[in-house]
Amino acid sequence: NEPTRMMASLRRLALLVVAATGLSPGAPRRIPAAQARREMAASEAEALLAQAEALRREAAEAEGALAGPAPAPAPAPRRLACVLPMSKPDWTVVDEEVEFAPFFNESSLVLFDVPVPCGIVLEEADDQGVAVVEVGAGSNAELAGVRVGDRLRATSAVRPQMEMPTWQIVAGGIGRPKMFRFIFGCDLRGPPRRSFEDVLAAVASNRDDPQARPALLVLERPL
Fold first, then answer.
1. Other C-beta atoms within 10 Å of 213: how many?
2. Which among 113, 119, 117, 116 is positioned nearest to 139, based on CA atoms?
3. In the chain, at which end, N or C, are there fewer CB atoms within 10 A of the end residue's CB?
């Protein structure tokens, strides 16, 4: 009958499985001893790595607790800045921002156009600055607002310089002398380093300006 034929077929299929694999149906899979040792070693290594990572995190947390909060970054050094008319080699003048390292903890820059003669006395200060030590009563400097104690940071200056138009360059000419007005830095500590005599000469050179323009004085004033 039909059930008997189905049972016979299942028995034949089971015999084929045994013949093909060497395993009885439902028999547990046996793992070779060498493979078992390898799997155990890998499992132990993973456990050790996990323990090492946990110890590393604990050490980092303990170190951070001992060190305390990270120090705040140092503030950027204070700078003073102003816009000055900067002369270029081609005789053009461009307004540019110029920065100065301050002499005082609290100070500001003041700019004055002072007709010459200015009527001030300058002196080399101990901090390598150029200090205003005297302002003549009723002088152009006093009328402009210059004060004793101001530091001279820059001044306009005039010097003769050869001007050579393009046609003279092409023809091999040597040009002609012309008074060139420029901004002269007055810091004795540099850069660039100046001597006190250089600063005095720069201030005095404004008298040679053929256009008789006022001297431009850049002063640092303590607050």
1. 14
2. 119
3. N
Classify residue 91 by its DSSP letter. Answer: S
Residue 187: both structure tokens together? 């810091």
Q: Is the per-residue pLDDT at 119 higher than 80?
A: yes
Paired residues of 135 in beta bridges: 120
Q: Cα(109)–Cα(102) distance, rounded to whole angstroms? A: 9
Rounded to an integer, what distance in angstroms lies between the CA atom of residue 165 and that of residue 86? 21
Cis peptide before 28 (omega within 30 of 0): no
- Residue 45 to residues 32, 39, 52, 58, 146: CA-CA distances in angstroms? 20, 10, 10, 20, 80
**pTM score:** 0.63
3-state DSSP call for residue 158? Answer: strand
Report the C-alpha gap between 151 and 4 in whole angstroms.
120
Q: How far is CA 42 from CA 32, 36, 38, 46, 117, in A?
A: 16, 10, 6, 6, 92
pLDDT in tens, 185-219: 998 887 788 899 999 999 999 999 999 999 999 99
Q: Is 32 left (phi over 0), alpha (psi -120 to 50) or beta?
A: beta
What tokens does 137 get?
């009563």
